[in-house]
Amino acid sequence: MKYKLIIFDMDGLMFDTEKIYYETWFKFQDKYAFTFSEELRKKFTGKNEAGIRDELVNLLGSLDKVKSLRKDLEADRIESLKSYRGSIKKEGLDDLLEFLRAEKIKCALASSNDRNKIDLLLKKENIYDYFDFIISGENVEKSKPDPEIFVKAKDAFEFSNEECLILEDSYNGYKAAQKSAMDYLIIHDSSFDKYFTADREVDNLRSVIAYIK
């Protein structure tokens, strides 16, 4: 097969977590005197902590307020991720991971989220062992739409750009994938209305199998 490495984003692609994160913003609007919106969600999605922090400083006007808000958000989100029942895996994820394992295709996870939440989710959903390499937002200097996180994931292996496929759901991730010189597919997060059109899209993670074949 052409591809030797599949690079996964996590939130919104593998797990239905963006909806959880989205709802937490509204809990702290009054405390920090700001209005969260769908436009802000789109702007933040795919960015790492540093990228979101820079945007929030412009919104709140104070780095101290931003640090306090992020601390409140983090505590609330960790509790939500620990306490949810059932599974929040996206359609086709299990099928795709099993296919890649059977075909001996390597899997990397390149998420702008922090490593603590990445490990929590992968272990809770029992798919941690499917991934050969994990890189988080703490491991890069530049946030998506910069391709640094994808390039570092690829560089952990001895594969060419042509042998790698990036899977993403967000606009920032899409632009980063375009700049990476690797192949990519966009699977839009079905929890929200589609807000951009990519030149390479499939409906769900199960559809990636046919693309790879």
List the helices and strands and how they pair.
Layout: E1 5-8, H1 18-27, H2 29-32, H3 38-44, H4 49-60, H5 63-83, H6 93-102, E2 106-110, H7 115-124, E3 133-135, H8 148-155, E4 164-168, H9 171-179, E5 183-186, H10 207-212
Parallel strand pairs: 1-2, 1-4, 2-3, 4-5
Helix pairs in contact: 1-5, 4-5
Between the first and last Cα atoms, what is the distance in angstroms?
7 Å
Low-confidence stretches: none
Give the class from helix and strand content and strand pairing.
alpha/beta
Shape: globular
Put simply, the count of helices is: 10
CATH topology tier name of the largest domain: Rossmann fold
Kindly estimate the percentage of residues that lie in beta strands according to DSSP: 5-15%
Q: What string, H for helix and E for strand, traces the elements in order?
A: EHHHHHHEHEHEHEH
Tally of separate domains: 2
CATH superfamily of the largest domain: HAD superfamily/HAD-like
Computed over alpha carbons, the radius of gyration is 17 Å
Largest sheet: 5 strands, parallel
- Please estimate the helix content: 40-55%
- Spatial sequence of strands, sheet with the most strands: 3-2-1-4-5
Protein name: HAD hydrolase, family IA, variant 3
Organism: Anaerococcus tetradius
GO molecular function: hydrolase activity
InterPro entries: HAD-like_sf (IPR036412), HAD-SF_hydro_IA (IPR006439), HAD_2 (IPR041492), HAD_sf (IPR023214), PGP-like_dom2 (IPR023198)
